Amino acid sequence: MSKFSTQLDSYLSKEQIKAVAPVVFATEPTNKNVSEKYLHVNTETVIDDLAKLGWFPVTAMQRRTKPRKDGSPTIRSKHMISFQNPDLIIKGKNGDDAFPRIIVTNSHDGLSSFQFRVGIYRLVCSNGLVVADEEFSAFSIKHKGYTFEELQGVVSQAVADLPNKIQVLNKMQVRMLTADEQRQLAIDAMALRSTNPDAKYDEATIEEVLAATRKEDEGDSLWLVFNRVQESIINGGYSAALRGAKVRKVKKIKSFERDLQVNQDLFKLATSLLN
Fold this sequence. Notes:
two-stranded antiparallel ribbon; globular; 6-stranded antiparallel beta sheet; 8 strands
């Protein structure tokens, strides 16, 4: 992921986006069987409109799909772009600053609307994207009459809700976890990645998932433990019993859809400890 900078030339250009997610610029639906009510709005329009509101692209991805067996072209429609605003920052202790992000997912096949999620990106780590279903807001705009005013309303609502998001983070920072709570959070988090519901994890693996890779993440607060676990779960590298009794290294998540889902589920796990 790109590191945050207040310099606009550090954000992704349209050429850079096109190189990794060309479907963003599709000029017509990728599915010829869309409803007559479907209004094609390519994601480039949203990029331009968000720039007017001070939000600029920092990451871009599109769905990876395998070629079809019959040799016909594969529709790569689902894609994601995340945006940052150089004027918005959440100041943390000892330089552990974080930045709100707007995460936009879309497809041009008539199967989904524009989805807007709000995330938090930590500068000190490379996968600090936090997304949640309940505590953090999610919005959508259907392909049936997109307008700049509607987008402006979505962004305004998201920004207005930022104090609530910061309050959740503050609660996580003062909630101290016992050793047993940390251990259970790591086990529950690994279960989100496992294809084997009966997978067992030895103590060495649990300690590996809980280990801090940087000094800033050392400590027993829910926020710090969550970030350590999140980094391990997203990046993989720990051992787990998958597909029966075989023990294998869990791989890094590469699909942005899976990344978003796991992040949402992880955040839900963590914030359940605030209750």
